[in-house]
Structures are given as structure tokens and as C-alpha cells.
Prior knowledge:
Low-confidence stretches: none
Distance between the termini: 41 Å
CATH superfamily: HUPs
Helix content: 40-55%
Number of strands: 5
Oligomer: single chain
CATH architecture: 3-Layer(aba) Sandwich
Structural class: alpha/beta
Strand content: 5-15%
Order of helices and strands: EHEHHEHEHEHHH
Amino acid sequence: MNGLLIGRFxxxxxxxxxxxxxxxxxxxxxxxxxxSSNKPIEKNNPFSAEEREQxxxxxxxxxxxxxxxxxxxxxxxNHIKWIEKIDTIVPKFDIIFSNDELxxxxxxxxxIQVVVIPFLNRNSLSGTKIRNLIISDQKWDDLVPQGTRNFxxxxxxxxxxKNL
Length: 164
């Protein structure tokens, strides 16, 4: 059985890693959709789809890498067209993992099983919060996996975020 998990992962953090592990406990293969892949780099989307892919791949172990595939999912203004576009990008799947109400509603109408992902420490594990901690020079590195931490340090994420 195959599943789909769509997220922006701006940046990929420990909550996202737990969501991947949760989804992988329910399916054989997991398609990861990098949402907003067509958006330019800006304050709320500071990392490109390729950079987010790199964060994920550098943060998961080999057994997880064997079971995931990453796809770039563009934003569209029309929700029905967005779902149809996903069908042209991602291979067939039986389950979608999502906490987004609109995504849940759209897929439930298509007879795709929708599974809610348990949140891990949602108060501190949010991309917005982590980006703000980086900008303000506060402790953030314990909120992301080692691979993401290394990536953000290498690209000087603090400087990028301040410039946006």
C-alpha cells in the first residue's frame, strides 16, 4: 500500500520527521509531496524545493530512503485543479496523511483514506517558529534533525532569513 504526505517543510524539523515515521508505519511506500514547489524564495518560503528535498534526504536513515520518493507539488489557485495536478505528478496512492482540513475534505470525496497525523510538540515544532528563532539568534538546532541542522548551517540560513 502506498501513501502520500504533502508539506512545505520550511524547514524540515523533528515534527516532520515523526510524521514521516508515523506514515511509514502505515504504508509500504510513501510519496512525499513538497508543497509550494513553484513559489519563489521569500520570507514564508525561504527554501527551494530542491533545498527541502536535500534537508529531508540528509535527515532520514537508509531504510527510510528506500521507502520514500519525493515529488514537487506546485500551488494552484483552484483546489480541484490542484488535486488533478497531483494525480499527474505522484504515482497511485491509497492513503493521504494530512492535518489540513481542505485536503482532508477534497480527498474524502474521492474515496481516498485520509489519516490525521499526530502532532509532536506543535508549540515549538513549527517552521515559522524555527525560522524566527534562527533570525533572532536563539536556540533552534535541537528542533531539527542533524541533516537539516548541517544543511541550514552550510547555506547560512540565518543570513538568508534576515535578508528576506
